[in-house]
């Protein structure tokens, strides 16, 4: 049992506590914050290598055995999500430490607490601790959203807090119902018992399952539960908005985890409970996200709607529920998380050189570094649109290939292809307005900080890497999808743990 599995939770937790104790010593906090996310990135790579062998690794906290003890699970999916989070955190903090963490030094501690919640949600093996880690990440996100001043942040933050408190209440009700029905909170144990639920108890299990879908849909910003996202993300500071690109993916992750493991193909009377809902919700989310991006008057709001578009695309891949579609989905998840993160950081650099116009999509003075920022925006834009040869094109092509040419799936082809055209139109409008159709005068604003520029370029390089090494990435996501579609493997791994535990105990005497 490797202790490295718990490191992605303990490391940011300890770093956050130390940062609180060092309150006021901003330079030291920045160094510690950067070192913490650097170490987290190295640990995530180590765990990805460990999980790539296909084994499911369990870690029982306090050596309490599952299903009653708290257990962490490392498989290919959780390892991939940890790595994507660590990469995003590394470049967001690299951007923040260059003086973009104003007005206080509390941002770094709250980001570390956010990482505790996000990493815990990816690693936990039971529903109650998933609820606990959700609360940790939400409380941290409340603080991050309200970090700094401004009525817009307070207004957006209030909506965000109220909606998520409602979601937390529903989550607790659903978990309580499932616990009352199965007598367990461990996902593998619960899956075994849900499979045996009688027809009389099936409606209760189905109701709890649908409630969970509402909660996860709220986290993932699925239509019609996404209205809190555009203003909230647009109002947040740049490194916070970039970090929030992973938040909707936590919702998508939990949908995949719960509805393949507990309510998956082998769930008896409640098998594939969510699938009939996911397909129409995915398509509606895609369409509404695209309409929002076309109508947006500020660049950051437009990017926030592109986050919603990515959620709709991911959900369509999950709804197809095949190994090919899930493989394409997780390749697209890596791409969309990184490209949305880089767009939020880039938007911050752009608005700083537009004077009072900030990020409003309207004609203004020429940017001081128009050529450099325009080139970076162009690369990020063709990637998020899905134009060849970058990773967005590969992800969408694979997803459409997985959908096939069946009549009932043709609507996905229409929406994805029309969506790419709509995204092209939206970003062409914002890009041409800010970099091309400008006044002759140049805004006399400071040049972008070199370190902040390197953080943006670093994230873009990551996007280029998953394009260049798409074959290797797809080999991993393909194996990940096959592992997901065999949920019994988790139960078998837990049985091995229980068998080995007494032997280990005897050896210690």
List the helices and strands and how they pair.
Layout (H helix, E strand, L loop, with lengths): L6 H15 L4 H26 L5 E4 L10 E4 L1 H21 L9 H18 L3 H19 L5 H32 L4 H9 L6 H19 L8 H7 L2 H7 L2 H15 L13 H21 L3 H22 L2 H29 L18 H16 L5 H13 L6 H26 L14 H19 L1 H15 L3 H21 L1
Antiparallel strand pairs: 1-2
Helix pairs in contact: 1-2, 1-4, 2-3, 3-4, 3-10, 3-14, 3-18, 4-5, 5-6, 6-8, 6-9, 8-11, 9-13, 10-14, 11-13, 12-13, 12-17, 13-14, 13-17, 14-15, 14-16, 14-18, 14-19, 15-17, 15-18
Largest sheet: 2 strands, antiparallel
Instruction: Please state the CA-atom Rg, rounded to the nearest Å.
Output: 22 Å
* Average of per-residue pLDDT values: 88
Unreliable spans are 499-509
Derived structural class: mainly alpha
Strand order of the largest sheet: 1-2
Q: Distance between the terminal alpha carbons, to the nearest Å?
A: 19 Å
What does this structure look like?
By secondary structure, the chain is mainly α. It has 20 helices and two strands. A two-stranded antiparallel ribbon has the order 1-2. The longest helix has 32 residues, at 151-182. The protein is globular, with a radius of gyration of 22 Å. Mean pLDDT is 88; it is low at 499-509.
């Amino acid at each position: 049992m490797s202790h490295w599995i718990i490191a992605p939770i303990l490391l940011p937790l300890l770093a956050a506590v130390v940062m609180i104790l060092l309150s006021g010593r901003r330079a030291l906090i920045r160094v510690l914050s950067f070192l913490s996310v650097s170490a987290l990135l190295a640990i995530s790579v180590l765990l990805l290598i460990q999980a790539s062998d296909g084994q499911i690794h369990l870690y029982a906290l306090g050596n309490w055995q599952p299903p009653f003890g708290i257990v962490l699970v490392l498989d290919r999916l959780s390892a991939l999500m940890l790595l994507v989070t660590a990469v995003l955190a590394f470049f967001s903090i690299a951007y923040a430490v260059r003086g973009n963490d104003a007005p206080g030094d509390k941002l770094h501690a709250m980001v570390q607490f956010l990482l505790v919640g996000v990493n815990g949600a990816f690693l936990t093996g039971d529903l109650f601790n998933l609820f606990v880690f959700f609360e940790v990440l939400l409380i941290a996100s409340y603080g991050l959203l309200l970090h700094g001043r401004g009525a817009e942040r307070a207004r957006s933050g209030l909506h965000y807090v109220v909606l998520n408190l409602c979601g937390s209440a529903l989550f607790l009700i659903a978990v309580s119902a499932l616990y009352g029905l199965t007598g367990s909170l461990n996902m593998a144990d619960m899956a075994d018992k849900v499979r045996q639920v009688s027809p009389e108890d099936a409606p209760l299990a189905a109701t709890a399952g649908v409630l969970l879908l509402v909660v996860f849909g709220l986290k993932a910003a699925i239509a019609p539960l996404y209205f809190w996202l555009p203003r909230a993300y647009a109002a947040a500071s740049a490194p916070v908005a970039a970090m929030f690109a992973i938040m909707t993916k936590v919702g998508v992750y939990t949908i995949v985890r719960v509805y393949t493991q507990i309510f998956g193909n082998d769930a008896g009377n409640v098998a594939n409970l969510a699938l009939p809902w996911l397909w129409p919700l995915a398509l509606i989310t895609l369409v509404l996200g695209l309409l929002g991006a076309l109508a947006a008057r500020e660049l950051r709001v437009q990017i926030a709607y592109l986050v919603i578009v990515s959620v709709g695309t991911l959900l369509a891949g999950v709804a197809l529920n095949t190994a090919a579609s899930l493989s394409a989905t997780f390749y697209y998840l890596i791409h969309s998380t990184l490209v949305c993160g880089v767009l939020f950081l880039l938007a911050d650099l752009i608005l700083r050189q537009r004077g009072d116009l900030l990020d409003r999509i309207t004609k203004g003075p020429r940017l001081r570094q128009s050529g450099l920022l325009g080139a970076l925006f162009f690369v990020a834009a063709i990637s998020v649109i899905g134009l060849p040869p970058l990773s967005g094109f590969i992800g969408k092509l694979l997803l459409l290939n997985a959908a096939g040419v069946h009549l009932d799936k043709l609507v996905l082809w229409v929406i994805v292809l029309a969506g790419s055209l709509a995204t092209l139109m939206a970003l062409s409008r914002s890009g041409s307005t800010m970099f091309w159709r400008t006044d002759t005068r140049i805004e006399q604003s400071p040049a972008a900080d070199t370190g902040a520029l390197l953080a943006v370029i670093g994230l873009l390089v990551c996007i280029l890497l998953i394009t260049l090494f798409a074959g290797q990435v797809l080999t991993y996501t393909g194996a990940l999808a096959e592992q997901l579609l065999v949920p019994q493997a988790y139960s078998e791994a837990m049985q091995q743990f229980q068998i080995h535990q007494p032997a280990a105990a005897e050896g210690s005497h």
